[in-house]
Amino acid sequence: MTGLQQKMFQELESQKGLKLAHNHALSYVKQIFDRNVYPSESALKNLARFNEDLPRETGNPETILDLLNTYGGPATVATSGSRYFGFVTGSTLPITLASKSLSTVWDQAPAMHVTSPIGSKLETVVEDWLRKLFQLPESTVAGFVSGTSLANFCGLAAARFHQLSKLGWNVNEKGLNGSPRLRVVAGRQCHSTILKAISLLGFGVDHIEWVPTDDQGRIIASEIPQLDETSILILQAGNVNTGSFDDFNTICKSAQEKGAWIHIDGAFGLWAQATTNLSHLTKGMEHADSWAVDAHKTLNTPYDSGIVLCKNPEALKSALHMTGSYIITSPQRDGMFYTPEMSRRSRIIELWAALRYLGKAGVDQLVETMHHRAIQFKEELQQIAGFRVLNEVVFNQVLVRCDTDEITEKVMAHIQDQRECWVGGSAWENKKTIRISICSWATTSADVSRSVASFRKAITAVTHE
């Protein structure tokens, strides 16, 4: 046994490092709702403490953990708190924090059943739960990936394989050189991750057939070009700025009859389907062929956790095809066949825990509460002179603007500097905006009013400069 081995065995047996990290984590969680949402200037400056040469010798676990806690903790963004409204970044349910601690210790590699029987089992169970929760076709399978960016890639890869196969072309064997041309049809307000996926898959952004959208970012159904068996139609459940949803009920059946593949990008909005009062937004989504959604946004699982859903199992598995002499397949689920990665984190553990804890009623209440807080945000902001809400608040997004671009940007900077809440900027119809994304289980009515107060202070400060 080497000296390093002996040292680490002793550290594991003593559990000092694990206990210290646990205590630091508990202290962090205890103050998450009271601390500044964004790090202070001093906390950011103190990050320079990490500027050091790689040590020559092995270190002390307690020293390393204390360094992280002392200088790393204060420089974190309180995304798991209740007043972070940037980038549709979800919080974390308490049960998922606890289950992630367990999954971290388990450190499973869920590529195959043989590498993680528990990972395989939970993926099988959650796949079934999601199929029923979203009311999708019985044939629907799920791949558990890092996020909707990759889920969109997977769904569109399945579309590419399937549509080309219908034309007698196996893209896995022949590649794209000389292949029949596929048509990609998307709305002008599609998310940038769609453009990334289209680029990576070799379609080329310049070849997208763009469909005009209305003032909320919804595809205008009557403007969709004539579709056929070479078409891939991309729709959206939750515009990143307005939160709007395309009219799936009108569009999907018609596109399906024409032989088009329909993919829905539903990073945060697809969860509306699991509610009582918001499911009208997603009516008809079950007629699509593939769907992309995040668990780490609306469902509030820890990062990272995304899901691709596909009603054609063979298309998804063929698109993400992998073989090897060392691969050990089994009658049970081998998760690697539903994702691009072989090596990935066992994020399914927290996702299972979240759904097992919430149940149908809990998911419904979680999602609808976010909508209620967004409505409250809109109503309170409308009472302050100088702010104009630009969107119909149908889900969890509130898009706000002041009189000019300059005032809007200055007000946003003032809000961020106060650190009471955090909001990000965007652009809508070529004008600067402030984007508010309600995406935390913990956001209360009091949190919204407290955050609106920082908006009021900011507009007052800017208009009196």
Automatic annotation (TrEMBL):
Keyword set includes Lyase: yes
Record PTM N6-(pyridoxal phosphate)lysine, positions in chain: 297
InterPro entries: Aromatic_deC, PyrdxlP-dep_de-COase, PyrdxlP-dep_Trfase, PyrdxlP-dep_Trfase_major, PyrdxlP-dep_Trfase_small
Biological processes annotated in GO: carboxylic acid metabolic process
Keywords from the UniProt entry: Decarboxylase, Lyase, Pyridoxal phosphate
GO molecular function: carboxy-lyase activity; pyridoxal phosphate binding
Cofactor(s) essential for the protein: pyridoxal 5'-phosphate
Gene3D superfamilies membership: Aspartate Aminotransferase, domain 1, Type I PLP-dependent aspartate aminotransferase-like (Major domain)
SUPFAM superfamilies the record matches: PLP-dependent transferases
Protein family (similarity comment): Belongs to the group II decarboxylase family.
Protein name according to UniProt: Glutamate or tyrosine decarboxylase
